């Protein structure tokens, strides 16, 4: 430690009469010495550097403090007092320490977050392996931006309460939903809530972008499809009634012979069971939901699916013909034709995609 003793003598002189540049030079020499010998140092030796470097760091310009923070942040046994001092500095100085230094404990990080605010919190969210005490604090006190950042940290660990708060907030926060959907540590009992939040958000976005009439059709079709799927006894009845038709449709599909023309053929013949099974397979929807779309009371649902699949008006007209009332009413058919023409394929495909998602969530 003779080199340290010499530096300490120079330090006393520099602190008394030297300029800022002189102090920065002494600090650089002292840091060089510490970094080169840190691996073999004991606690007593490190404590000497802690006191000396800490004293110098309070008397140098920000540029020199930034350099000091960058150099010491990756040292496994850096002086703890200095690291806490730098972590409480301006964010330009603190950032590398907050992100990298292993010398900061969860308790240190909580205290720094409480004392300094959002910029320091955001830097902390970049640390690997954040513990539950700090993630709990960041979620409760950090605000939306910090919450997003900590949720996006795949190595962060969350308490049951902290994850519950995240899922609760995700109900009204689509971006947070997306971040949580990429995590593998959401408990099973919260995953269902997260899926429900995603479903409701998708529905809100979809209905907000549609014309009022179409939005109503989507809401009604989705709710009726959900009712059909959630009623287990009804599902079994439906599968029994459609069993023979579904077997034939799957055989056609396996042979590559199931297409729009085949569905139109079934519909024109009044064979609603095979037509519904064909649509369910081609549109990737469940049977109960498909039956509600084709035969239920919502007139526009069949238009949405036909347009979304890229089918012609003629095919869609044949499907409308399966409906007991609208299929035989010329005014109703004409209104449907106009609505079909006014419905853009992009909008219909978005609706169809949402119906698939909703059907899948329920199943």
TrEMBL record:
Name of a matching Pfam family: DUF2336
UniProt superkingdom: Bacteria
Protein's recorded name: DUF2336 domain-containing protein
Organism of origin: Bosea caraganae
Taxonomic lineage of the native organism: Bacteria, Pseudomonadati, Pseudomonadota, Alphaproteobacteria, Hyphomicrobiales
């Amino acid at each position: 430690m003779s080199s340290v003793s010499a530096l300490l003598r120079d330090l006393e002189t520099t602190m008394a009469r030297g300029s800022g540049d002189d102090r920065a030079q002494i600090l650089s020499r002292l840091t060089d010495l510490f970094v080169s010998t840190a691996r073999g140092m004991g606690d007593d030796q490190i404590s000497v550097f802690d006191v000396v470097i800490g004293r110098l760091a309070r008397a140098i310009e920000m540029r020199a403090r930034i350099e000091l923070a960058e150099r010491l942040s990756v040292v496994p046994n850096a002086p703890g007092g200095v690291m806490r001092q730098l972590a409480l500095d301006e964010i330009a100085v603190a950032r590398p320490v907050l992100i990298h230094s292993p010398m900061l404990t969860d308790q240190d990080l909580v205290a720094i977050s409480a004392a300094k605010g959002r910029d320091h919190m955001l830097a902390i969210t970049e640390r690997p392996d954040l513990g539950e005490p700090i993630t709990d604090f960041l979620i409760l006190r950090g605000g939306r931006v910090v919450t997003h950042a900590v949720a996006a940290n795949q190595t962060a660990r969350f308490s049951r309460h902290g994850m519950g708060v995240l899922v609760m907030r995700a109900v009204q926060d689509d971006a947070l939903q997306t971040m949580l959907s990429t995590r593998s540590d959401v408990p099973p009992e919260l995953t269902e809530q997260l899926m429900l939040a995603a479903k409701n958000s998708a529905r809100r976005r979809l209905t907000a972008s549609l014309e009022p009439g179409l939005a109503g059709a989507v809401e009604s079709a989705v709710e009726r499809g959900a009712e059909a799927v959630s009623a287990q006894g009804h599902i079994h009845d439906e599968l029994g009634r459609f069993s023979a038709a579904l077997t034939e449709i799957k055989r056609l599909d396996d042979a590559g012979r199931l297409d729009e023309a085949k569905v139109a053929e079934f519909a024109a013949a009044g064979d609603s069971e095979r037509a519904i099974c064909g649509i369910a397979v081609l549109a990737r929807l469940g049977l109960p939901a498909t039956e509600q779309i084709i035969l239920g009371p919502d007139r526009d649902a069949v238009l949405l699916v036909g347009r979304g699949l890229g089918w012609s008006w003629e095919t869609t007209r044949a499907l409308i013909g399966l409906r007991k009332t609208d299929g035989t009413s010329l005014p109703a058919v004409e209104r449907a034709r106009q609505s079909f023409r006014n419905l853009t394929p992009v909008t219909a495909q978005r609706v169809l995609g949402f119906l698939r998602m909703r059907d899948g969530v329920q199943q």
